[in-house]
Specification:
Elements (H helix, E strand, L loop, with lengths): L3 H5 L4 E5 L2 E8 L7 E4 L10 H9 L4 E4 L18 H15 L4 E6 L1 H12 L4 E7 L11 H9 L4 H4 L5 H7 L2 H8 L3 H8 L11 H7 L12 H14 L2 H7 L2 H7 L12 E6 L20 E6 L6 H4 L1 H15 L3
Parallel strand pairs: 3-4, 3-5, 5-6, 6-7, 7-8
Antiparallel strand pairs: 1-2, 2-4
């Protein structure tokens, strides 16, 4: 039976990559520098459906994988199998499978954290980087989980995610509610990210989800068919794979002490979203100091889900940059 996902995406392909089976979607002619689109949480390759269509129309080779722990890709048991070494290694393995030396990597949300690490960990495989909402962040002076706990409290969602099984069960209890809660327009997400009136943690998405009335249909971002693609998939997989990425913040920090602190000689584009409550444009300030070849662009009125909220602007910015920096 055709699923909502299959009706809206190119045919799924599979690759044995870095010890897992990776599902990916591919469009365009296999020529030139490919673009690899890397999704965040709680998302899928499906989040890039608009970009895949635009790349295909422009004659650009583009690939969007379901990353480790998500969708139709393997979900290993061990938490440490989701550290940065594995996440970047998966993308390098995908290039190996495709017989490609280098690609332009585009990353949103967690996918952005991963792609910004690629020039530091696998510089010879990177032709260019595009950060969508997610800036290049310098290594913190202290364990990031400890820092978030001190600043935002125990209920801040990334700190909450550290507790085994708790968030996993809460998000999976009603996947339709969870996806509709997260996939909303900027005002709703900003409200959910704020500290509650009675005080408490900022970004306490677990508490906000519990309190949110599922009957509230205002600010919904997705069509019923688009929502169904996410809901059907996460009902089948649960959320543990994606949450395990967060459970490696401390491990990644510990293991990154000797990595380079600059990105030199790699064309980079930073696309910011004006109304992203989680990854604000202010977080991208100072990137020029540590990236030698950087362009920046701001998309007005977009919240966190920029490639789905403002697909035409995202497509225009990426394809224009590709045409200038990697002409066909």
């Amino acid at each position: 039976m055709s699923t909502a996902l299959d009706r809206q995406m190119p045919p799924v392909k599979h690759a044995p990559v870095n010890g897992i089976d990776m599902a990916y979607y591919e469009v365009g002619p296999r020529e030139g520098v490919p673009i690899v689109f890397c999704h965040g949480f709680p998302e899928l390759a499906f989040s890039w459906r608009h970009q895949l269509k635009a790349c295909e129309a422009a004659g650009r080779w583009a690939i969007a994988p379901d990353q480790r722990g998500y969708g139709r890709t393997s979900r290993p048991e061990a938490v440490t199998d989701y550290d940065m070494e594995h996440l970047t290694g998966d993308l390098v393995g995908l290039l190996d499978h495709l017989g490609v030396e280098q690609a332009v990597f585009v990353g949103h949300d967690w996918g952005g954290i991963v792609v910004w690490q690629l020039p530091l960990m696998h510089p010879d495989r990177v032709a260019g980087i595009v950060g969508l909402n997610t800036p290049f962040m310098r290594r913190a002076p202290l364990d990031p989980i400890e820092g978030m706990r001190k600043v935002f409290g125990e209920d801040m969602y990334i700190v909450w995610f550290q507790k085994p099984g708790i968030a996993d069960a809460a998000l999976a209890a009603d996947v339709d509610k969870t996806m509709r809660f997260f996939m909303r327009k900027p005002a709703a997400i900003a409200q959910a990210a704020a500290a509650p009136p009675a005080g408490g943690a900022t970004f306490a998405f677990g508490e906000a989800l519990k309190a949110w009335d599922k009957a509230d249909t205002a600010n919904q971002l997705l069509s019923p068919e688009e929502l169904a693609a996410f809901v059907e998939t996460f009902e089948a997989t649960g959320f543990t794979g994606g949450i395990n990425w967060y459970r490696n913040f401390t491990r990644n920090w510990e293991r990154s002490a000797d990595l380079p602190t600059r990105i030199d000689g790699v064309p980079c584009l930073m696309i910011m979203a004006e109304k992203d409550a989680v990854l604000s444009p202010a977080m991208a300030e100072g990137m020029e100091e540590v990236i030698s070849d950087l362009e920046k662009a701001l998309i007005k009125d977009s919240g966190h889900w920029t490639q789905q909220e403002k697909p035409d602007e995202v497509n225009r910015l990426i394809l224009d940059w590709m045409d200038r920096r990697f002409p066909k």
